Amino acid sequence: MNEYNFAYLDEQTKRMIRRAILKGLAVPGYQVPFASREMPMPYGWGTGGVQVSAATLTPDDTFKVIDQGADDTTNAVSIRKFFENTAGVETTEETEKATVIQTRHRIPEVKLREDQIIVYQVPIPEPLRFLEPRETETRKMHSLEEYGLMHVKLYEDISQHGAISTAYAYPVKVSGRYVMDPSPIPKFDNPKLEMDAIQLFGAGREQRIYAVPPHTQVVSLDFEDYPFEATKADHPCDLCGAEDSYLDEVIMDDAGNRMFVCSDTDYCRSRRAAGHLGRLAEEDAA
Amino acid sequence: MTPLLSVQDIQKTYGARIGCTDVSFDLYPGEVMGIVGESGSGKSTLLNCLAGHLEPDGGRVIFDTRTDGPVDTLTMSEPERRMLGRTDWAFVHQHARDGLRMSVSAGGNIGERLMAVGDRHYGAIRDKAIDWLGRVEISETRVDDRPTAFSGGMQQRLQIARNLVTGPRLVFMDEPTGGLDVSVQARLLDLLRGLVREMGLSAIIVTHDLAVVRLLADRLMVMKDGCVVEAGLTDQVLDDPQHAYTQLLVSSVLQV
């Protein structure tokens, strides 16, 4: 292959990260500090996720990378290539075939299985950060379960916008204990956080790893009179006709034409392959 | 009658310097205690020790809790103490900015304590916030404004509303009228006096303004160099000061 150790990181580092992952799985939602390494990519490109993936991958794994739902954008292509080069693992764009999925901003539409691991890239792991800037204080709030402040944010949303306007990185309570930032996934994906697969979250710059084990209760915070709602654009996908998937809005020209397409490119592709067609599907083929 | 708060031999030193020493007193339900003294006399140190913001070096602060009766707050666990700080206790800072969240609307500021003790109904929280804005004489239309848009006096009133919304039994106030002009001070004092009487609050007020204690406090402690030099009924201490320092303090007040 080449002169890199398997999956780039040295074995001691992977051990250290695995220990953090195991601790995170043992205490769902708790942010475990770890000694994040310099990676050959800038912060914000998924250095946390890459380290968790590197510590998780085995030579038999099949690896998939998602960036905003897509498999073919810069970030996804770069990270996929990175592990092709340094680990020599098989890569795929198909969710069903992957055993380790690294993702940024989305959870695949297809239900994940027990033999899969999904790794999230996390920019700011601390859900209370923008409300309470002091790390000493937020740690204390977590340890004492003082989460009233989280609701102050939701209160402000409703008082200013008439509804909970937080649309992504929507705070959740894991297993009835820790309030957790699910990374900047749309709140449409929040209900999927209770899944069969193992979920690992890595924040490289902030040096935190946390995890949600399979079949763990994950509750989105809300008010009794303003319950949580998983929202999406009220539209079917223009390519595959799916009505249950999260959509991206694409502006087509300067005359106000626009189309809605699945943000999960693999889901959209497999649906079209199975014969489902949306409003603009033929034009796209032509 | 059990005292609401029983303070015994509180002592706090900063290295060799004395913050406050050998302070003991009992505070009964519905009573307002004033603490006066010059700058650096240990008033704020004492108040912070009582409210759990500073850890005293010695002594006991026994609070009569609703559920368990008298408990030493210095030896209780931190979650319990912080819970007390959100429910039965309130702390009004001298600078409203220290006690408010400046980036959160007035309604959110008042609602924070309610949400911290588990209130999860937006409509109910908002109604309570509006009710409390009215009680501290702030117009309902300002409920969604941030405190940065408020005047100093309004900020201070908002801070009071935010603290009293959970119906505390003991309020600590650190120079609540400091930095306000006299007419605003007078209104604030009026308001405070009304709220204290109406809700049957007990309060400990630290101030260097004798007029404030004359108006609000039932009893008075005079501090100098970390020690209590004189204590008694407010009128008695102010009208017939015994200790040399108290005499100086009383005679230093400017007469208009």
Would you give an account of this structure?
The complex is a heterodimer of chains A (286) and B (256). Chain A is an alpha/beta fold and 286 residues long. Chain A is built from 7 helices and 12 strands. Chain A folds into 2 domains: 11-128 and 169-220, Rossmann fold (3-Layer(aba) Sandwich); 232-286, Ribosomal Protein L24e, Chain: T (Roll), CATH 2.30.170. In chain A, β2 (62-67), α3 and β3 form a beta-alpha-beta unit. In chain A, α1 crosses α2 (47-56). Chain B is α/β, with parallel strands linked by helices and 256 residues long. In chain B, α4 (106-116) crosses α5 (122-135) and α4 (106-116) runs parallel beside α6 (152-164). Chain B is globular, with a radius of gyration of 18 Å. Chain B starts with a strand and ends in a 5-residue tail after the last helix. Classes of the chains: A alpha/beta (286), B alpha/beta (256). Chains A and B meet through α5 of A and α2, α4 and α5 of B.
Q: How many individual β-strands of chain A?
A: 12
Strand order of the largest sheet of chain A: 1-9-8-5-4-2-3
Any idea what the CATH architecture of the largest domain in chain B is?
3-Layer(aba) Sandwich
Radius of gyration of chain B: 18 Å
* Secondary structural class of chain B: alpha/beta
CATH level 1 name of the largest domain in chain B = Alpha Beta
Question: Termini separation of chain B (Å)?
Answer: 42 Å
What would you say about this model in short?
With 286 residues, chain A is α/β, with parallel strands linked by helices. Chain A has helices spanning 11-26, 47-56, 74-86, 135-143, 148-161, 265-273, 281-285, and strands spanning 32-33, 62-67, 90-91, 100-104, 117-121, 172-174, 178-180, 198-203, 208-212, 218-220, 247-251, 258-262.
